[in-house]
# Entry
Amino acid sequence: MKKLFLLLISIGNLYADLVLEITQGSEQPVRLALIEIGGSSYEGNEVIEIVRNDLLRTGEFDVLTNDQLLSIPASEEDVIQRDWLLLEADAIVFMNIQQEQGALDIEYSFFDIGYKESIEKRKVLGLPDSVRQTSHYVSDGIYEFFYGIEGVSSTKLMYVAKNSDIYKLIVSDADGFNEQVLLKSNSSIISPAWSADAKDIAYVSFENNRAQVFTQNLETGERELVLSSNASVSSPAWSPDKKFLAFSTTKDGNSEIYLINLKSKELTRLTDNTAIDTEPAWSKDGKNLLFTSDRAGSPQIYQVNIRNKLKRRITTVGSYNARASYLNQDEIVFVHRGESDFNVAKMNLNTRSLDILTSTKFDESPCIAPNGNVIIYSTKDGNLSYLAGVNISSRVKFKLPALYGELKEPAWSPYLR
# Structure
């Protein structure tokens, strides 16, 4: 008997299913310390530990601990420059943490060791009972200050965990904490996708012995079948304005790309070919879709204009190119096979230059962080799937294996602010 459970339960903060391992760090990480102004408090230690772990997870920071310091200044005026130069430190991030009505407000400043001066001050206003999320916002601000790119510690990850033939659709913080199991089933769950406002998701469930697309509201748990059909329906993708869902379906014989107006339920067919067309992905402006098709004899990436339905082939190099997404207006990310290995690649749409981003062999399901600089994908070690990632600018690489079972089908949330 098929078993399906709709769940909206938190697993808690003590354990996280995701365990990050940096496999290739930055050659020149920023070396800094995190210090609470005025001494050490319980709340301050908690914030500093969360921020420290966030920064270490990027692979682009070397965060000094208190036992490594030659002196611990109570404020910026107490910094002994010589001690910090001996440690080859770049900066100190001073934090002033205030508890207001059950929430933590965090003011933090950047102290440049070389110039021995404070450069900039910032403040994050906390929400009640949200120490982790408030701390993640601080982490993102620190990352943005040093690298000019907004951090992603405050975002969410969605993925499928499989253990003993039980599938769980999970949403967690980017660090793996605050897990929520949204769906539990002994049938496969694939292709989870976020709406642009991060309030709803879509995914494919095989609970009725065929692929069907469901949408689900994260606040209420309300769930809806997108298209009632005896045919396969898969690969959901939300339009940027959240008015449409693109998907592939075999309702007319073979797999084609369709749009459904989520309000009127009106269907629009975008492809009409004897080949298999699947895996649609929206452009940022909502005017085009990428999709995978084998109409040329092997899986390749194509683009279709939503308004006039004109199509053009995007990839020409490699025997297999699939699961594409727009990185930005000029670049796409997808799974590419050259001679034998399946890797995540990036291609410039103007120059057609190809950049292989990963070195593992069985990569699939790449998803792009909302800052456009980090990619998480599913890969394999033997028969077990796990998540891995790569930072595009620094080429930092990491693994996200599960404590139990295996992980696959990652999807990165938009920014939640």
